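Write out this protein's structure.
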Amino acid sequence: MILYPAIDLKDGEAVRLLRGEMDQATVFNRDPADQARKFQEAGFEWLHLVDLNGAFAGKPVNAPAVEAILKATALPAQLGGGIRDRATIERWLEAGIARVILGTVALRDPALVKEAAAAHPEGIVVGIDARGGRVAVEGWAEASEVLALDLAKQFEDAGVAAIVYTDIERDGALQGINLEQTLALAEAVSIPVIASGGLAGIDDIKRLRALEERGISGAICGRALYDGRLDPAEALAIAKGKEGAKGEEGVGAC
C-alpha cells in the first residue's frame, strides 16, 4: 500500500483545511518545496498535491509552488485542483506531474476523463469527494445528487490509474478514515482506490493495509502527519507490510 503525504497549496503555502473550509486553514510550511524535500527525506515515495485556490477558481493558481516542488524532489507527484480541460491536463503532464487528479470535470464531463485516460495510461486519477455519500465539486462548495458509487462505476474499464475517495466531513478532522464507504466503493469497481479524509494515526494505516487485497491501494496522510501523530517510519513500514500490519483484532470486519 502506498502512503501519499499531502501538500495542500493555498496562496503559495502548505496548509491543511478543516472539512474543506478555506477560512479554516492552518499554515504548516510557508515553503512547499521545503516540505516536499522533508517528505522525500522521510522515505515517502509519492507526493499528493492539491491546488486549493485552483479548485475554487477552476484553473491553476499555485503553479509556481507546484513547479518548485517538482524541482526540489525526485518523487513522482499526483496533482488535483482546477484541472478542468484537456490543455491543462497536457500542460501538467508535460511539466513533470506523474498523475493529474480530475474531480469536478469527472462529474461535469466524464467523456473528457475517459479521453484523457486513453491518451495517458496511468496518468489520470479520478477524485471523488463526498458528503453523505454524494459527490461535491467546485472545491467542495457545490453539492450534487450523484452518488459516489455511481460516479465511480462510470469509469470502470476507462483506464484511470486510481480513484481518490475523500470523505469531506472527516477531512482534516482526525476522526479516522471512513472505512465502510471507502471499502464499499473499492469493492464496487476494479479501479484501485486511495483512501482520503480523516486519517488519524497508525491504527488507520493498519486497518487500511489489511484491506489492500480488497481494492484499497493507498492512503493520503495530511494533518496527522503534520501534527506528529503519525510517525513516518512506522507508517511506511506498516504500509509496506514489514511490521505491525497483521494480527489486528477486527481488521477488515467493517
